[in-house]
Write a structure and sequence with these properties.
Elements lengths: L2 H13 L2 E2 H10 L5 H4 L12 H4 L1 H17 L6 E6 L5 H9 L6 H4 E6 L3 H11 L5 E3 L10 E6 L8 E6 L2 E10 L2 E6 L10 H4 L6 E4 L1 H17 L1 E10 L8 E4 L2 E3 L9 E3 L2 E2 L1 H4 L4 E6 H7 L2 H9 L4 H15 L4 H4 E7 L11
Helix pairs in contact: 5-6, 13-14
The protein binds S-adenosyl-L-homocysteine.
């Protein structure tokens, strides 16, 4: 048992089973034993690799797309250049380097990072120097001004609840104890569940996931955008409307049963984009592969390849395939742009 498993078992013995959302939140962000609080999850040494860590091209192209959107919206100044869950800060650093030559963009940008982990904040500060970002605990605290926001693999880390449509009605999947070990169980039938298309169209036996945390994060991200302009770009794995249990744990680049190592494995769930898109007056949705190809990733890759030989060149070519190939991240990962009605869409989404 991990130290966090012992704490959770004690809590469940005392006060009863907890929701999957509570379990996820404790595993990821417990102040002492949480995964993001204690670990270095990213890269070859960590438990998983994210797109910005695979290649600098990812942050460069998305940074340029945001800068073009800023130009197309009339170069508001000052504006918030925000990132949610920046990890090691690599995406923002690559975006800033790529946009150096965009006239006025850096002068007008106020970098704001929403990050829960103090340890990752310190890494972000180092990666982003000499830029001086401001850190926020919550998306709700974004400044009240035009906002161009990006979030890669942030929503998938937000807690989800799971509901099963049983013959007696909706029940919630809970984490309880069986023979002293953490185990999944079901609540009594519930009087009410969230009112979304996924719930309305379910048939008996279906498991439906719902992330109130993702909904709130998107609503909060949209608040300054709807008032003052800008846009939000969410990138994550998932689909328009997924079905079934997508909760997964990754430990040392391998799948792990989600209840096996609380606090020591990364826990994520597929992001459902349909209920998030519904929160904005205008949206655009495409696969990561489509957007990166439209943004010219192949040209950028050829350009970078000129300086490389041997293993470095092979890694670079593999990185391009990993980001865009439908068999790798190209179709599993989606990009969702949310903005005001009638606002021009960024390049790659037209
Ligand atoms: N965007 C980065 C990291 C993704 S991992 C990349 O692509 O490499 C998820 C990130 O979100 C981490 O930085 C984690 O600490 C942060 N995070 C997770 N839950 C959070 C929450 N509730 N509030 C703020 N940050 C959170």
């Amino acid at each position: 048992m991990t130290p966090l498993a012992r704490l959770l078992a004690k809590r469940i013995r005392e006060t009863g089973p907890i929701t999957v959302a509570d379990y996820m939140a404790e595993c990821l962000l417990h102040p002492v034993h949480g995964y993001y609080t204690t670990r270095e999850p990213f890269g070859t040494q960590g438990d998983f690799t994210t797109a910005p860590e695979i290649s600098q091209m990812f942050g460069e192209l998305l940074g340029l797309a945001l800068a073009q959107a800023w130009l197309d919206q009339g170069q508001p100044a000052p504006f918030t250049l925000a990132e949610l869950g920046p990890g090691r800060g690599t995406l923002m650093a690559d975006a800033m380097r790529a946009t150096r030559a965009v006239p006025g963009f850096h002068a007008a940008a106020r970098i704001v990072l929403v990050e829960a982990s103090p340890r990752l904040r310190a890494i972000q500060a180092r990666t982003l120097a000499p830029h001086v970002p401001r850190w926020l605990d919550r998306v709700e605290d974004l400044p009240d001004q035009p906002t161009f926001l990006i979030a890669n693999e942030f929503l998938d880390a937000l807690p989800i609840r799971q509901f099963l449509l049983s013959p007696e009605g909706w029940r919630e999947r809970l984490v309880g104890l069986q023979d002293e070990a953490l185990a999944f169980g079901l609540s009594a039938p519930l009087p009410q569940v969230p009112d979304t298309p996924a719930f309305r169209t379910a048939t008996p036996g279906d498991l439906v996931e719902h992330s109130a945390a993702a909904q709130s994060a998107v609503v909060a991200a949209l608040r300054p955008i709807l008032r003052h302009g800008g846009l939000a770009l969410f990138i994550d794995y998932g689909g328009w409307r997924s079905r079934g249990d997508t909760l997964q744990a990754l430990r040392a680049h391998a799948f792990d049963p989600p209840l096996a190592h609380p606090g020591e494995a990364d826990l994520t769930a597929h992001v459902d984009f349909e209920p998030l898109a519904a929160l904005a007056p205008a949206h655009a949705y495409a696969t990561q592969g489509q957007v990166l190809l439209r943004l010219g990733i192949e040209l950028r890759a050829d350009r970078l390849a000129r300086g490389l030989t041997g293993a470095a060149l092979e890694n670079h070519r593999a990185a391009l395939a990993r980001l865009t190939d439908p068999a790798e991240m190209g179709s599993l990962f989606k990009m969702l742009v949310l903005t005001r009605a009638g606002a021009p869409l960024p390049p790659g989404f037209a």
